[in-house]
Amino acid sequence: MNENQRVQQVLSGNTSAFAYFVETYQDMAITIAHRICGNMQDAEDVVQESYVKAYRNLHSFRSESKFSTWLYRIVYNTAVTQTKTQMWGDSREAQMDGALLPVENSLQIGMEETERREMVTDIIQRMPKGDALLLTLYYMEENPVKEIAKITGLNDSNVKVKLFRARKIFKELWIKHYREELLFMEES
Amino acid sequence: MDKTLQGRTIIHGGVMIEEKKYTQKEEDFIRDMMQTAKTKAPENLKYRIMQQIETEKTLIPIKVNSRKESGNILKEFGSIFGTMYAVLAVMIAATYFLFGQAYLLSPQFLGTALLVASVFSLLWLISRLDPHLRKKKEAQKG
Fold first, then answer.
1. A-chain residues within 8 Å CB-CB of B2?
2. Which tens digit of pLDDT belongs to each residue from B80-135?
3. SS3 state at B89
4. Taking every pair of C-alpha atoms in chain B, what is the biggest distance, in angstroms?
5. Contact status, residue A148 vs residue A134, Cβ threshold 8 Å
6. Structural domain tally of chain B?
7. Fold adopted by A3-83
8. What is the ipTM of this complex?
9. Do B104 and B47 share a structural domain?
10. How many angstroms separate the Cα of B3 from the Cα of each of A29, A150, B7, B19?
């Protein structure tokens, strides 16, 4: 059964069919909300509210677009409205621009899975919210630029530029973090 | 994934960005790293969402019923008064052909027509009063 058929099922009164959408997209929805809200409690509330909004407005869902894109757009808007976050135009972006490092081989690092996760989470928290969100949508969910543009309301070229800068910031923070770790290990 | 980004120059707001610096190796590395940092939704979130949606669902039939009811009022109105006008039309036609035009203007005929109109109006009034009283009774019970 495809997603459009499931949508039709929900619209015809079978509420339990909506559980499929909750099950399938809740992890990504909470990841997006977490990037914007910055804490899990608010992110959970945002996701819950977004799903209820999606259910209420399911009749307005156009099957030409992907359900995930439509849902993530609702999550994005709800989170931004609730937190009153300024997503784009962080001053940090400009500061980082001049401090980019050529990093070809420095990314080749052997590391434990949990250690890696902690490090990535820490880096993401240090990044500007908008950049962290773009990397999340692009790499985690493998969303194409067009879908990211639909979710965030930016235009395609804006997404590409911001994504490019986000990658640079991520790389720089990664190297910085890794060097700090090495220094700490050497000292101890 | 948008592979067209590789080896491209983007011009945006006067800023030129050399995309080709980013190798596939770096792309794969960032992707691997990002995949590890997916936030897991808590176990009870799905339950909470579905619970709230079920509650929402219980509210929807009330809206549907009220819409249905307003449709019923018009239907009832149309059918009762439609029948009344049909009866009056038959009465007028029969009187005209049987007793002539003069009888149509007589007080006897006008009285009969008024009686028919009153009966149908009463019927419509009862049809509206009945659900209203029933609703009131249910509200008092609830």
1. 144-145, 160
2. 899 999 999 999 999 999 988 888 888 989 999 999 999 999 999 988 888 888 88
3. helix
4. 104
5. yes
6. 2
7. Rna Polymerase Sigma Factor; Chain: A (1.10.1740)
8. 0.78
9. yes
10. 25, 19, 9, 11
Q: Which residue of B has its CA nearest to A53?
A: B53
Q: Are residues B19 and B79 in the same domain?
A: no
Both B113 and B87 in one domain: the answer is: yes
Which strand (E) or helix (H) includes residue B15? Answer: strand B15-18
- What is the CATH code for A91-187? 1.10.10.10
Q: Where in chain A is the domain with CATH 1.10.1740.10?
A: 3-83
Chain A residue with minimal CA distance to B32? A139
On whether any CB of chain B is under 8 Å from the CB of A75, the answer is: no
Q: B69 lies in which domain range?
A: 43-141
Residue owning tokens 């009762």 = B80
pLDDT per residue over A65-86, tens digit each? 889 999 999 999 999 998 887 7
Chain B residues with CB-CB distance to A162 below 8 A: none
Of A48, A51, A145, the CB nearest to B2: A145
- How far apart, in whole angstroms, are the C-alpha atoms of residue B15 and residue B5? 16
Task: Give B114: exposed, middle or buried? Use CB within 10 Å, 0-12, 13-18, 19+.
Answer: exposed
